């Protein structure tokens, strides 16, 4: 037996939509197997079938050569299958050890949980797999990279020999991604089988042994990583040759449309997250903010957009001066659009329909209201056109936002914010969690807006995205702007040093 997983002829339908069609998928013991495809290609659906969350309409599954019926995650765990979801399932108010043992706690006698033994087991596992965590830390206080370690440890604690990771790098910094890949290699070396769902070609090439490619629910390729390249994978993903980067032309700039002066902000713990931050963005310009997560970028976005109002300093949007007393709505009326970095908590109302989500930001224009009521007929036509223009895969605009794949939800938010015709656009992680085709599409739309004179503030943890799109790059460290450069003047390595706080823009040690 040389395959620990065999999925044969798997078909899964949701109403009239076929998510997987006659899919064959295998994974070998001690391998990292990549599963890649465009958003909505059926990757997560296929793995949810393997994890027992969905039942296939057709096909069969063999685990370690044995035919099985995976009717629930509990059944999947029984066969040694664990899954780390894209959006974590941890209980924020509980400690690390409490989350890990939840559902299978070690007991002293009767119903008394042996927390000391549980904590010791967590420590031993974390050391064995190089997943260092504090077993007594509260999950809500942990950065996302450590929370992901907890999710992986939880799966290993439950006995997973086959580990599924769904878009595990979508919320990680470059440093955390490198650490994750070291962990995956360590797990592989210890005999674990890893199935890695991702849309990032470079990551797929760097860490996997084998690759399966899905396009519109159909397998279009089974490849050995060492015998392929990014161009071949991209072609199989989209069914045609596709470019992997955008071409940015020189663009004339106009008047200053966004200006911040002497911004200072303390978080709820009294930590100074913004320290005398000042900069400006002109019409027709993209200014990128680079930095390791947690150095003030999120707080900067919240202050400019009006979500955070307990700050010192001045924000000027399209010549209008805003004080802390001015909220989100006032700033948006002045021409500010905002693609939030977290599409689930800030970008969309998940239980609301696509039409309602679109209308939340696009209902005050001429003809959009019938006196005091929204013109829903006109809004529906506009929403459908807008979503189709941005190639969002959806059945009808009345479906809830949570029914979209992560990448399609992201595209719907980008579409809504660009539809407003902003004077100033904050684009925070605009391509997070989307495939190469959608990333290029979003990048092209951002450059289109730049060409039309929009002032764009781009905040991204993807240095390649910052380098590809920005006209100027500002680097944040410990809440301060510590350097300014351009893509022509610096390499990713130069900017990485700035991000680590080691050099300023002149190469001088800080």
TrEMBL record:
One of its GO terms (molecular function) is ATP binding. It is found in: Cell membrane. It is a peripheral membrane protein. PANTHER family: CARBOHYDRATE TRANSPORT ATP-BINDING PROTEIN MG119-RELATED, GUANOSINE IMPORT ATP-BINDING PROTEIN NUPO. InterPro entries: AAA+_ATPase, ABC_carbohydrate_import_ATPase, ABC_transporter-like_ATP-bd, P-loop_NTPase. Pfam families: ABC_tran. Its main location: membrane. One of its GO terms (cellular component) is plasma membrane. This is ABC transporter ATP-binding protein. Keywords: ATP-binding, Cell membrane, Membrane, Nucleotide-binding, Repeat, Translocase, Transport. Signal peptide: none annotated. It comes from Youxingia wuxianensis. Residues 5-241, 258-503 form the ABC transporter domain. The keyword Cell membrane applies.
């Amino acid at each position: 037996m040389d395959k620990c997983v065999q999925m044969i002829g798997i078909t899964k339908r949701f109403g009239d939509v076929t998510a997987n069609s006659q899919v064959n998928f295998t994974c070998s013991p001690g391998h990292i197997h990549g599963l890649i495809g465009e958003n909505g290609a059926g990757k997560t659906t296929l793995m949810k079938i393997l994890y027992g969350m969905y039942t296939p309409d057709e096909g069969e599954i063999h685990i370690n050569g044995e035919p099985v019926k995976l009717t629930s995650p509990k059944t999947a765990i029984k066969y040694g299958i664990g899954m780390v979801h894209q959006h974590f399932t941890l209980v924020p108010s509980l400690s690390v050890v409490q989350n890990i043992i939840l559902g299978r706690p070690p007991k002293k006698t009767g119903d008394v949980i042996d927390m000391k033994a549980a904590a010791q087991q967590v420590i031993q596992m974390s050391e064995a797999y190089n997943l260092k965590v504090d077993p007594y830390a509260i999950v809500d206080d942990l950065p996302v990279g450590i929370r992901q370690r907890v999710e992986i440890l939880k799966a290993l604690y439950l006995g997973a020999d086959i580990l599924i990771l769904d878009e595990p790098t979508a919320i990680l910094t470059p440093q955390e991604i490198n650490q994750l890949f070291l962990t995956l290699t360590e797990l592989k070396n210890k005999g674990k089988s890893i199935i890695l769902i991702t849309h990032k070609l470079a990551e797929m090439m760097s860490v996997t042994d084998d690759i399966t490619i899905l396009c519109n629910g159909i397998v279009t390729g089974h490849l050995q990583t060492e015998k392929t390249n990014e161009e071949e994978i991209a072609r199989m993903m989209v069914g045609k040759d596709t470019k992997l980067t955008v071409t940015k032309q020189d663009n004339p700039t106009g008047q200053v449309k966004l200006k911040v002066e002497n911004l200072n902000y303390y978080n709820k713990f009294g930590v100074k997250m913004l320290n005398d931050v000042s900069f400006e963005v002109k019409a027709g310009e993209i200014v990128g903010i680079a930095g390791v997560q947690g150095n003030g970028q999120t707080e900067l976005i919240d202050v400019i957009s009006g979500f955070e109002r307990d700050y010192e300093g001045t924000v000027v949007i399209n010549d209008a001066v805003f004080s802390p007393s001015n909220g989100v709505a006032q700033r948006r009326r002045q021409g500010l659009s905002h693609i939030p970095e977290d599409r689930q908590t800030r970008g969309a109302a998940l239980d609301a329909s696509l039409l309602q989500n679109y209308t939340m930001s696009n209902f005050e224009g001429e003809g959009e209201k019938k006196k005091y009521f929204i013109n829903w007929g006109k809004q529906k036509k506009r929403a459908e056109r807008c979503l189709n223009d941005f190639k969002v895969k959806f059945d009808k605009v009345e479906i809830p936002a949570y029914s979209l794949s992560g990448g399609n939800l992201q595209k719907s938010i980008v579409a809504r914010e660009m539809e407003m015709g902003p004077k100033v656009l904050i684009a925070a992680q605009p391509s997070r969690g989307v495939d190469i085709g959608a990333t290029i599409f979003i990048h092209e739309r951002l450059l289109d807006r730049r060409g039309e004179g929009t002032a764009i503030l781009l905040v991204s943890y993807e240095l390649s995205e910052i380098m590809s799109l920005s006209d100027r790059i500002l680097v944040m460290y410990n809440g301060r702007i510590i350097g300014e450069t351009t893509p022509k003047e610096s390499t990713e390595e130069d900017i990485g040093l700035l991000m680590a706080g080691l050099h300023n823009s002149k190469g001088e040690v800080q």
